[in-house]
């Protein structure tokens, strides 16, 4: 009997119901560094729900050493970045307020002579707007993690994460392991074998091969316990996710195949928001407002990443257009003219639309398992 299409190409299909049952009941849950750091980015309510969910996983929770190390290394940067954002917003509001006041004062005599609007109503409207802005800024500051406590590794979030992951972190790899993993990484990256090859241009072994370290550590741990694995990550790159029509449909088939071939068990991947939506399948229900906050943060992050990608792409095209003026780069005049015309039309439409043509993965679209 010939094998069925689904059997031959199983990694291009969602897990079967039996696989979902196995995953939901017995998989260990691995955390990437960005999933742990997400605790600082969520609203206080969503952050509390996320931490409670992680606590509920108990013995099923596990963190690769590389991910835990990246969390420790980047934690203060994430916290200070949020403080800088609030400070920058306060400066922006102050600047806009001064501009408004100056503009109104220049037209003060005209406004006072006008029958269309009164000076008093404008003053009251401005004062109310400023009051509301100040309230938002003050509330945002009150929600921020205390920098002194954070620098002393004593803020409430870090303390709780340290307790949750107290005995759930993988062993530190030795120099021989790292050397072997780097050698393997160079071969994999040359063939664009996932994950991590999109980081090939980064400087430093830890940044260039960090994703691969995490992947290899996950597989090695899974080989010892022989159970399915779920990785929770905020990765959006195409060396982790299968992207179709600008959206993610789950982990790359190559990753699922490699994991199953070595471990003999299924592998799946969730974003933080995706796992919060599926939490009920893992024995813990999360209130919808907390899930919505995580989904909104994910959407805003995706939109920001797409805009950054578009900006970078436009800059590359501008540089390409500039290079076309060099006869040594493109000696044929007619070819140069055709390229200039094509790139110019694309660039014009890109700038006019102000929307990215090259969209990244949307982890919120990773399908949820059946209940």
Textual characterization of the structure:
The protein has 371 residues and is an alpha/beta fold. The protein is built from 16 helices and six strands. A hairpin with a 2-residue loop joins strand 4 and strand 5. Helices cover 63% and strands 6% of the residues. The model is unreliable at 307-312 and 354-371 (pLDDT under 50). The radius of gyration is 26 Å and the shape is globular. The longest helix is centred in the N-terminal third of the chain and has 42 residues, at 65-106. The protein has a four-stranded parallel β-sheet. A two-stranded antiparallel ribbon has the order 4-5. Helix 3 (33-41) packs parallel to helix 5 (65-106), helix 4 (44-57) packs across helix 15 (288-323) and helix 15 (288-323) packs antiparallel against helix 16 (333-353).
List the helices and strands and how they pair.
Blueprint: H1 5-8, H2 17-26, E1 28-31, H3 33-41, H4 44-57, E2 61-62, H5 65-106, H6 108-113, H7 119-143, H8 147-151, H9 156-164, H10 175-190, H11 205-208, H12 210-225, E3 229-232, E4 241-244, E5 247-251, H13 253-263, E6 267-270, H14 272-277, H15 288-323, H16 333-353
Structure summary:
With 371 residues, this protein is an alpha/beta fold.
Low-confidence stretches are: 307-312, 354-371
Helix/strand-derived class? alpha/beta
- Sheet-strand content, in percent, reads 5-15%
**Helix count, DSSP H or I runs of 4 or more residues:** 16
Radius of gyration: 26 Å
Tell me how many strands there are: 6
